[in-house]
């Protein structure tokens, strides 16, 4: 995608893989700055504090973290210790564990002296595969928006939640990929952007859409249901951090409420995600998906800029208040019309059939 008209990716290797360069997303949408991660611990910190965020990008960053760990020490014990730390830094997004395990499966059969070259090659392949996968998700989902336009003969109103655009991936995005693809085809559309408290990732979505020239409007999280009641939402498309084999979906907190409102108002609810987000080992999302609980500070305060553009943090409630901060919730498959993947659009219960070859390869 483009920033100020310049094609840009969220992460790239530099210095022949001695470091990676990321966009520091904790500074967006107020400042666009890049940051160099030259140590696998830098990658862990970036994932933890959400300098990089979004399940696919977290996975790719984890892959490069393993490569940097190999550069530091390719022997089994330090490599496995680093990998354990990397894959557990954020527990809900399965892409991180998937990427780390894919790296280890490539590296461990090799002699330590041969691991660095293999690590750089595998991390680069994971990075490029994410780009191609997200492009395919966009193509698969754009047809849904085009079909709606052909029926409505007016701009299609899409509601999304959190940020599942190119900032959450290496490029193109997941939930926003169909929007970008449809917009590039000339399909008239408009996006309702939920702010997504407490981290306000919706502001990143709005920043992305502005950069690409896509019509959009920011709304408070609780406005989505009211818009659906009045016929102002034609389709909901969100991303995912983990999907079970039966199609239950963990995504940013508040997604479940959007799905309930969509079901009550006959608005189709779609999830867009790559195959690496599907956890074939889990079935019941509510019972089995681990939900990350983050700091209460994210709820009790809010970050922004003042009139001069200086960074400020504002306390919203007394520091003595208790605050719960579950980062994700789970939406049961019965509320989901379809899951958009790089292979097409499937009913949640059709995932196993669509990826039967993948499942068989794991057995």
UniProtKB/TrEMBL annotation:
Recorded GO MF terms: S-methyl-5-thioribose-1-phosphate isomerase activity
EC number(s) per entry: 5.3.1.23
Superkingdom of origin: Bacteria
One family name in Pfam for this protein: IF-2B
Binding residues for substrate: 53-55, 90, 201, 251-252
Active-site residues (renumbered): 241 (proton donor)
Keyword set, alphabetical order: Amino-acid biosynthesis, Isomerase, Methionine biosynthesis
Annotated site (Transition state stabilizer): 162
Reactions that this protein is recorded to catalyse: 5-(methylsulfanyl)-alpha-D-ribose 1-phosphate = 5-(methylsulfanyl)-D-ribulose 1-phosphate
Pathways per UniProt: Amino-acid biosynthesis; L-methionine biosynthesis via salvage pathway; L-methionine from S-methyl-5-thio-alpha-D-ribose 1-phosphate: step 1/6
Function: Catalyzes the interconversion of methylthioribose-1-phosphate (MTR-1-P) into methylthioribulose-1-phosphate (MTRu-1-P).
PANTHER family, sorted: METHYLTHIORIBOSE-1-PHOSPHATE ISOMERASE
Family stated for the protein in its record: Belongs to the EIF-2B alpha/beta/delta subunits family. MtnA subfamily.
Name the record gives this protein: Methylthioribose-1-phosphate isomerase
Underlying gene: mtnA
């Amino acid at each position: 995608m483009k920033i100020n008209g310049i094609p840009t990716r969220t992460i790239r290797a530099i210095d022949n893989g001695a470091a990676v360069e990321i966009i520091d997303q904790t500074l967006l949408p107020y400042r666009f700055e890049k940051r160099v991660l030259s140590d696998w611990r830098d990658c862990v910190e970036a994932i933890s504090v959400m300098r990089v965020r979004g399940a696919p990008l977290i996975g790719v960053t984890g892959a490069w973290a393993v490569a940097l760990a190999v550069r530091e020490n390719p022997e089994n014990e330090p490599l496995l210790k680093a990998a354990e730390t990397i894959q557990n830094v954020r527990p809900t997004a399965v892409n991180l564990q998937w990427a780390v395990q894919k790296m280890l499966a490539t590296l461990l059969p090799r002699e330590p002296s041969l691991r660095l070259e293999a690590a750089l090659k595998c991390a680069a392949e994971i990075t490029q595969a994410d780009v191609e996968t997200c492009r395919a998700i966009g193509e698969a989902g754009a047809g849904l928006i085009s079909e709606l336009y052909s029926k409505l003969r007016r701009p299609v109103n899409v509601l999304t939640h959190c940020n599942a655009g190119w900032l959450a991936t290496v490029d193109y995005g997941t939930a926003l990929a169909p929007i970008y693809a449809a917009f590039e085809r000339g399909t008239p559309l408009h996006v309702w952007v939920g702010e997504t408290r407490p981290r306000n990732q919706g502001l990143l979505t709005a920043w992305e859409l502005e950069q690409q020239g896509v019509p959009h409007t920011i709304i408070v999280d609780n406005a989505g249901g009211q818009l659906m009641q009045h016929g102002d939402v034609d389709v909901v498309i969100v991303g995912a951090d983990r999907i079970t084999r039966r199609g239950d979906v963990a995504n940013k907190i508040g997604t479940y409420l959007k799905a309930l409102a969509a079901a009550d108002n006959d608005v189709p609810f779609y999830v867009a995600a790559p195959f690496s987000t599907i956890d074939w080992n889990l079935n019941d999302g509510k019972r089995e998906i681990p939900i990350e609980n983050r700091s209460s500070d994210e709820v009790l305060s809010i970050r922004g800029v003042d009139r001069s553009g200086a960074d400020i943090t504002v306390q919203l409630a007394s520091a003595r208040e208790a605050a719960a901060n579950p980062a994700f919730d789970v939406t049961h498959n019965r509320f989901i019309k379809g899951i958009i993947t790089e292979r097409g659009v499937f009913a949640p219960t059709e995932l196993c059939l669509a990826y039967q070859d993948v499942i068989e390869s794991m057995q």
